């Protein structure tokens, strides 16, 4: 166990940028920090820091050892929290950003079940499709759909949903039923936040740019507009379950529907997450495991 001595002090120096500042973080003397790091370097047989009169920097070996040590400490912190959670209920506020019919009809009920398990936890869901700043907005994680572009965030796949194109009987009677995705260029389309629709044509994905005079980022409004005869809509299949069963909407272009509509849990790339965030994410992944 002697090999673990000095690791906390070493990580504190690496993250705070100096021995004095690390001593303040760990509430101990600077000489204690210095001795522990020196002993660690002696045991490892290499220098972890390059020291000058003005600053201290990690060496190449130090950078590697910091990355491994940080994972070790993070794992220990999480283990401590997991044990503590067995004795205490989750508390605080879980803040979630979500958007769309899937979030309203499926994510919200799932988080209601999570809330029942942790009655002392507050849950705040912001139904907004805007890009959020996780730090400034205090968001623990977001539910997003489709292609993700921000590489600074971690995305975990929640569900993949088959797409479906639909139109109302009245619209099809007046304008005809399309038999190929390319024919959508001659049709009015009810658009969400994406006017580039992906279809499977001859085992290859093709993107069709559509146009229309009705656009909304609310899936329920798109369904209503489509049922009112304003055009053809293309969204995840389950969005249209009620309308299809009531025959207010009719499926079209079935052979060409794409199966690549993916919803993601997206969160900030950081070493240590609050326990409430980690447990909520794992709960949702388990909840939708057989969606």
TrEMBL record:
Which domain of life does the UniProt lineage start with?
A: Bacteria
UniProt similarity note: Belongs to the LysR transcriptional regulatory family.
InterPro entries from the entry?
A: LysR-type_TF_proteobact-type (IPR058163), LysR_HTH_N (IPR000847), LysR_subst-bd (IPR005119), WH-like_DNA-bd_sf (IPR036388), WH_DNA-bd_sf (IPR036390)
The protein's organism comes out as: Pseudoalteromonas obscura
- Keywords assigned: DNA-binding, Transcription, Transcription regulation
Query: What is this protein called in UniProt?
Result: LysR family transcriptional regulator
Domain (HTH lysR-type) spans: 10-59
Q: Does the keyword Transcription apply?
A: yes
């Amino acid at each position: 166990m002697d090999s673990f001595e000095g690791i906390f002090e070493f990580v504190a120096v690496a993250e705070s940028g100096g021995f004095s500042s690390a001593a303040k973080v760990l509430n101990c003397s600077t000489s204690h920090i210095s001795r522990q790091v020196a002993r660690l370097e002696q045991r490892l047989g290499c220098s972890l820091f390059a020291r000058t009169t003005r600053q201290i920097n990690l060496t190449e070996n130090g950078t590697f050892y910091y990355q491994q040590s940080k994972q070790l400490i993070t794992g220990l912190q999480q283990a401590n929290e997991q044990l503590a959670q067995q004795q205490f209920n989750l508390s605080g506020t879980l803040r979630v950003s979500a958007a769309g019919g899937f979030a309203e009809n499926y994510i919200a009920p799932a988080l209601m079940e999570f809330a029942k398990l942790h009655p002392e936890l507050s849950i705040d869901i912001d139904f907004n499709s805007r890009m959020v700043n996780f730090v400034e907005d205090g968001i623990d994680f977001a539910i997003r759909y489709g292609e993700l572009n921000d590489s600074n965030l971690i995305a975990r796949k929640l569900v993949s949903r088959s797409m479906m194109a639909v139109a109302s009987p009245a619209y099809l009677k007046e304008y005809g039923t399309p038999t190929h995705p390319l024919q959508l260029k001659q049709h009015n389309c009810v658009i969400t936040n994406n006017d580039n629709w992906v279809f499977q044509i001859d085992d290859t994905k093709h993107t069709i740019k559509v146009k229309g005079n009705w656009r909304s980022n609310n899936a329920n409004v798109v369904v209503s507009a489509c049922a009112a005869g304003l055009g053809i809509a293309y969204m995840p299949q389950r969005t249209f379950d009620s309308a299809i069963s009531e025959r207010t909407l009719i499926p079209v272009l079935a052979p060409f529907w794409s199966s690549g509509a993916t919803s993601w849990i997206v969160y900030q790339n950081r070493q240590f997450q609050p326990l409430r965030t980690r447990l909520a994410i794992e709960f949702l992944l388990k909840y939708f495991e057989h969606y």
